[in-house]
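Escalation from tier 1.

The customer reports that the assembly of two entities below gives different structure tokens on two consecutive runs. Tier 1 could not reproduce it. I'm attaching the input and our single run for tier 2 to review.
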Amino acid sequence: MSKVRVLVGTRKGAFVLSSDGARRNWSIAGPHFPGWEIYHVKGSPVEPNRIYASQCSSWFGQTMQRSDDGGLTWAAVDNKFLYDGVAGTHAWYDGTPHPWEFKRIWHLEPSLRDADSVFAGAEDAALFHSADGGSTWRELSGLRKHGTGPAWQPGAGGLCLHTILLDPSNPQRMYIAISAAGAFRTDDGGQSWKPINRGLHSEFMPNPTAEVGHCVHHIAMHPSRPETLFMQKHWDIMRTDNAGDEWTEVSGNLPTDFGFVIDVHAHELETLYVVPIKSDSEHFPLDGQLRVYRSRSGGHEWEPLTRGLPQSNCYVNVLRDAMAVDHLDDCGIYFGTTGGQVYVSPDGGEHWQAIAENLPSVLSVEVQTLA
Amino acid sequence: MTQPTTIRIELPASLRLLAGIPTRDALPLPVPQPATVNGAINALEAAYPALGNTLRNPATGQRRPLVRFFACGQDISHQPLDTPLPEAIACGAEPLLILGAIAGG
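Tier 1 run:
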């Protein structure tokens, strides 16, 4: 019988939640790395028991952990993330030049083909790669040295590279997103990059349609259709069907189109999920009601999903890497909150249950579907 | 060549946990003479690779801002890391204390 393993990163450690395919009864293991911030935990699609975890601390910096037994035991791997060459400057909040300084790894993306190959997205924004299971890291500096790099400015959470999407049909193509620089694509394995922000409109910018400067919060892709991407921008839900060359807004009837997470159903290419958040100054759901919104038409038309979710006095947030889907026949949807709850819907969003209720603030959620 | 000297280092709980060190006792470690904070960190990282780059920023080699070093009741955090440690530390009579600054929540 199939199993699922949910990898949860929190402000104070990592947790591994496990269940069978019914997804009704759960066990919780952890905290792993108690007291440390775990920005992201993700398993290799090639060898699911190979899991990488980004562990950091304001005191002791970045460390990186690897498990080869499904999260039962862990070992520290290399944590030396050095920018290639002279780091240079990006733009600070006030527009003045500011030195590039490594702070942490926000996102890990294991290769689709090689368990020893893994990408890491950093703050200040840079893309790193390890070809040896995390034993050494090298910056793919073509991204940071892209001509617009000195103009990149941090979002409220920092100048973070938080999204990495690998194209299953083309090993040379990947997408990344940076707050608040925007989205970028490479077609040559990471050597060179182009901004893919045409069609985005950001009112807070002096030029709302500039080539870079957009605060992209997250991007989702269905692996069987890698030229179609769905974006939760600071405000606006966006869609592209040509690998980012042109985006169109699909916010439709959402009560607010501010938010952080977005994901795609495992088997329905036009079924999307978001969690609308009131505004950029009030990071909680509208009216104290935690509602996931689903579109079954690729955007534009959205419906609230509420059964099993708190519908009063709920003022949590759902951060950008804290939603995931499994690949069981009846697709499961998962998300975690800043209040320490992890919710699952085992039926595509119709019904929800809390599978953890009192964890530290959740930073990230990933799901592994195991045979 | 001068023989190494053995100093004793006390670590904060977070780093003991990271390195899998079960004891709260000060760790005896051989360091080159003259004993310095840099020498102590080098010995610590060699003995416990998981602690690599946790005390010094690998890009600059400098102390991380919220790490503090105390020797014989004195905060020596702002001294250059290659400053010789007091004799009581260098001979192992007193431990070198490594602390995470009280900051944040």
